[in-house]
Amino acid sequence: MKNFYDILGVPKTATDADLKKAYRKKAQELHPDKNPGNKEAETQFKELQEAYEVLSDGQKRQRYDQFGSADAGFGGQGFGGGFGGQGFNPNDFNGFADIFESFFGGGFGGQGSPNGRDDKKAKGPTRGKDIETEIDIKFEEAVFGTTKHLEITKPEVCSHCTGKGNEPGTAVKKCEQCGGKGQVRMTRQTILGHISTVQTCPACEGRGEVPEKVCTECKGQSRMKQKGEVSVTIPKGIEDGTTIRLKGKGAAGFFGGEYGDLFLHIRVSAHPKFSREGTTLYSSETIPMIQGVLGATIKVDTVHGKVNLKVPAGTQSGTQFTIKDKGAPSLRSEKLGDHKVTVTLKVPEKLSRREKELYEELAKESGTEVNKGFGLF
Ligand SMILES: [Zn+2]
Ligand SMILES: [Zn+2]
Description:
It is built from 9 helices and 15 strands. Among the domains are: 4-103, Helix Hairpins, CATH 1.10.287; 275-346, Sandwich (HSP40/DNAj peptide-binding domain). It has a 4-stranded mixed sheet. A 3-stranded mixed sheet has the order 1-9-8. Helix 2 packs antiparallel against helix 3 (39-55). By secondary structure, the protein is of the alpha+beta class. The protein has helices at residues 4-8, 16-30, 39-55, 58-67, 74-83, 96-103, 139-144, 289-294, 353-366; strands at residues 131-137, 146-157, 172-174, 183-190, 193-200, 209-211, 223-234, 243-246, 262-268, 275-277, 280-288, 296-302, 305-311, 319-323, 339-346. Bound molecules: zinc ion (2 copies). One zinc ion binds next to loops.
């Protein structure tokens, strides 16, 4: 295993400036453009980058000095990290980016991805992202189901190039970097020895081909943001907080990749009269006290319309009655839940002279102590 300091040809006490100077000199010597077809120089060039990446980073250098490795995940990070643009900052070394870009055909992703893709791991045809959105529906719509039309602005396949990325009528040529395979093999030295990995070709991002002229509409990205309508069938019995997954209604994929999915969060508005728990609906009705005393058949509002309810004589205020099969449907079956109604008895606030006489008579009959005289009313 080669020591990173030896690779750069500097002592362990080298300053950042020494490292930078040594790196720059060696990088120019070993640059593939100067050593065409020289595999050894290519390997050394990669080792050099790996060594510099670790030693130019204060934290990584410290860990390397201490443990002989920059971090526990070094084997997976080292060169691969730098390659993808995460580990290196080309700005902190003038000239470095130039070298790197000529080697990798301009596919260097240090400043975000080269063509502005939002997917950092983009590879040729790539599936579009899943999208999340919310929709408010009415209480009754949740009970009985509905169809909604949503306006969503999301990436769609570019209609100008039909998702190919090149300007129509212009040619697409085979990627020279990877010979059209879309992948390149990278061999690098790590503390575990030589590791060979296959990576997405940075020049063509895995497509194996590059356009002569990128599409003028989508700038070669194969897709564009567009406003569109999505129709959603919301099943009866859906509950507040449910998420519906609409397959293939998310963002368009890149270069013919499949669409992502649309995740729709359902929010059900409150109802002034009804509340709901699963398939059970709840409401309350206020009736005159005398109906509770003597019993009556009253009309109760349900989502399915008015329903007759028999209130027996002697019903106390706050009694809950169950009306079978007048609740919400279940998502899984045709069966309806129940409607539960709580009955509140209302005491009359104003009495006619005759009513008052009758109540006083009633009080006397039942031996109940009450106030006397009209003045109190
Ligand atoms: Zn286009
Ligand atoms: Zn390529």
